[in-house]
Amino acid sequence: MSEIVNILLAVLYLLVFPGFLFLFFYGLFCEYFDRKLYARMQNRVGPPLFQPFADFVKLLAKEDIIPEKADKGMFSIVPLFAFAGVLTAILYIPIWRTDAVLSFEGDLVVVLFLLTIPSFALFFAGWHSTNLFSQIGAVRTVTQLFGYEIPFFFACLAPALIMGTWSISGILSQTVIRPEVLILLILAFIIAVISLQAKLERVPFDAPEAETEIAGGSLVEYTGRRLAIFRLMFNIKMVICAALITALFLGGPVLFPAVPGPEFIGYLLGFVVFLLKTLFVVFLLTMMRTVFARVRIDQLLKFCYGWLIPLSIVQFLLLILVRSMGWFA
Amino acid sequence: MPKVTIPVGPQHPALKEPINFMVSVDGETIVDADMNLAYSHRGIEKLAESKTYLQNIYLVERICGICSHTHTTCFVQGVEELMGIEVPERGLYIRTLVAELERIHSHLLWTGVAGHEIGFDTLFMYTWRDRELALDLLEMITGNRVNYGINTIGGVRRNIKAGMKDQILKHIGKLEERVQYYTDMATTESTVLLRAEGVGHLPENEARKFCAVGPTARASNIPTDVRKEDPYAAYEELDFELITSDSCDILGRLIVRMQEMVESCKMARQLIENLPSGPIRAPMSREVPAGEVVSRYEAPRGECLYYVKSNGTFYPERLKVRASTYANWPAVVYSLKGYYIADIPLIIAAIDPCMSCTSRVAILDTKDGNERKVLDMDYLRTYGIKWYKEHGRGVRRR
Q: Nearest CA to CA, how far is A242 from chain B (Å)?
């Protein structure tokens, strides 16, 4: 009996909450939030609440075209591959309490790996479309990957270094005990948010899909439901990256100090706190998109290697110093 | 990646109208560029020969949707010279006012488009919002937002009423404030500087060689401006500066346009404050004496040229239009070389191109064996029937 319950619970986790269904709606909501904020900051009205959902449904209904010269297998499988990759990552991120659905020592690395899959999916999608613009976009995607991935990894591993654990849930439980440590991680937080913008390929780091230069980059040949899946994947990726940053640097769903009362109220409150904090991260990302122009790919690499990586090394040295002095033992 | 040739256009998100650039790139660097014009030939010059001079004002107004006043003024100036008409002062002042407001709206539009090309949509939205101020003024003065229809041979068609003056001065004040804000922003915003500084370099001697005009030439430190060199309308009585920049890059073109907007606001203020009284137009006859004339006008994009030849009838014998963008194309091809793929949209946009305006002639290349023939209606009909027999009628419709 308990086995069946466990299986049902696992299916529930995967498909309903915090898996597919929750991510689907929250991802679309985050797109709405992002677009509406962007519009308001530009003195526009912006889309209504259901616009992202309507866009998704409309794309599903559109004609699905595979270019004659494209690699048909790769062209079709790549969106699903990327989609599955990002969906899996949510299971390791705490959403309503300090523990995630799954956790083990080292799951932080797994999540970072899973979040890299979409970039490679974009590369394969662009390369196998055999379109000139999409191939330039694909090459740019990978070039950009080498720029932002190092500072992003450095920044995300900084909490692991100071907390002494490689599990996201573990880091969060440590944060609850010693919230003052987060002050040490402000630099890592800033680096993580900036490199996240590059990871999500949004202005100012959207050279791989630059509409006015290479007509949309990797996805230029995608239409219909495959494009819909890609777009949904981007939204979910944004949510998950925001959730990861929330868990690592902002104390995740934990509200300080902990509220007394029955357990489920704490969970509910934790969930609301989680939503607010992820929306705050999305807000930061939207701000960046609003106030900057697109930089060239070479300028991006110069920025990453000249500023972000040295700064993240400074952050690491600081943490090593703090640990060796035994201030936060 | 190996050396490849990228087609930019005739359909490309960076282009608002059709033109084609074949850009050879090595990796991300441009090594060579070539250009094909004339995707939107409209036959306006030929059409003009079958219309009267008065009708032609409204025809040439439709050459460009942004600088429509440019074309009418340039045309009527030429015709007035042929007919020997002395335009009343007030008419000239109103004409100049509309021209300067048009320059402000055109430059603001350009700033927005340039922002969009480098992914800075916020600038695009803001400048286009403030451009509405200029458009509102134009609508108030002329009754229209795009094709103003205010010029006529011998003067202008609508007068400025007493109550309009305050409103115009108020809007001009607001515009001045906003333009100052954009100037500050464009010269300090780090990502804009990253994209504009040192990009699309066009040295002074090259600009002279390619006969660049307007802000493109002035940003390459060539002090050329028809308003100063050969003053028309009311420009002789106005106090304004000729803006140049010696940076020779896109940032220079940006700054020149920004400063020109400040000067235009200044001029509009002077025009309104010193508006002379009197009639707004002189009487004219429909017949134009035989002769030929070249008329020059400083459009927002540079010098615009009109050649009008009259044979003494109601209709012009020949009308030749050289829009300002046409003079700037060779400079674009030159300044593309050596930069990155990412710079293509901005370098093309930096001259403020207006493709359809430049398209005056369609040239067919018959050298490489392509025979040139005229297809008549019967041929097209039989061809169509044959095509559908072969391909069936299964053309997908949605």
A: 23
CATH: 2.40.50.100, 1.10.645.10, 3.40.50.2000, 3.40.190.10. Which one for B44-334? 1.10.645.10
Nearest chain A residue to B340, by CA: A296
Q: Choose among B122, B189, B195: nearest Cβ to A42.
A: B122
ipTM of the complex in this document: 0.82
Find, among B29, B74, B71, B348, the residue nearest to B216 by Cα: B348
Q: Is the minimum CB–CB distance between B117 and chain A shorter than 8 Å?
A: yes
Note the pLDDT tens digit of each residue in A46-74.
899 999 999 999 999 888 888 888 888 88
């804000």: which residue's tokens? B181
Half-sphere exposure of A294 (CA within 13 A, CB side): 25
Domain assignment of residue A287, given as a range: 2-325
> How far apart are the C-alpha atoms of A68 and A50, rounded to whole Å?
35
| pLDDT, tens digit (0-9, with 9 covering 90-100), for B157-184 | 988 888 888 889 999 999 999 999 988 8
Q: Establish if A204 touches chain B: CB-CB under 8 angstroms.
A: yes
Closest CA to B153 of B259, B264, B55: B55
Q: Per-residue pLDDT tens for B301-340?
A: 989 999 999 988 889 998 998 888 888 888 888 988 888 8
Nearest to B342 among A203, A204, A210 (CB): A210
Chain B contact for A150 (CB, 8 A cutoff): no
Q: Chain A contact for B123, CB < 8 A?
A: yes
Q: Where are the beta strands (DSSP E) in chain B?
A: 3-8, 20-26, 29-36, 151-152, 155-156, 291-299, 302-310, 316-322
Residue among A43, A139, A212 whose CB faces B14 most closely: A212
